[in-house]
Amino acid sequence: MKVLLADDDPALLEVLGAYLRGAGFEVLQAEDGERALELYPRADLIILDLMLPKLDGFRVLAEVRRERPELPILMLTARGEEEERVKGLELGADDYVVKPFSPKEVVARVKALLRRAGLKEELNYGPLRLLPKERQAYLEGSPLSLSRLEFDLLLTLAQHPGMVFSRERLLEKVWGPDFPGVDRVVDVHIASLRKKLGDDPENPRFLETVRGVGYRFKDPDAPLP
Question: Whole-model pTM above 0.85?
Fold first, then answer.
């Protein structure tokens, strides 16, 4: 799981980032609001300081909520800023922690938010089994040999069955906003995944093309419309 840690305090980034990595999370770091907006498409959760330079946390929060209403967000606020906490919660933050705080408490809050968000330790779709933490995938009980990008692409789609992802959104989420490639790279990796999954593009079990838009994951156990 990827956690975006957005704060302009280098010491906090270092200490809290170390605790999060020790708990098994991949940490993305942003020291201002503009960088936070660049990185959030790749994140599974955001830890967001409200007093960020360039763009403050309120504007970041509002933008993220417009684009990804399901993304868990944990606010960081200074002691005594009750009005700011209320405003953040009204804008859609899921929880808050008051500075100074215990890094262990923040990690515990992150885990609780991810559980409430429904991010599972294991995903099962018919014959396909995904273990996000172990970064392993199995088809009919046999392990799949997937590259890092192939696994991330499959997991991103499988975590949101039925949701259509544009190629641009997949590039941001899997490859990152700074990736200089083109949309075609998504098509190439989808084709490779289909081959490994034994998926027929004309009658897919898992990876469906939505023409003119992008791709979505089909749950083979879901009832037909």
Answer: no
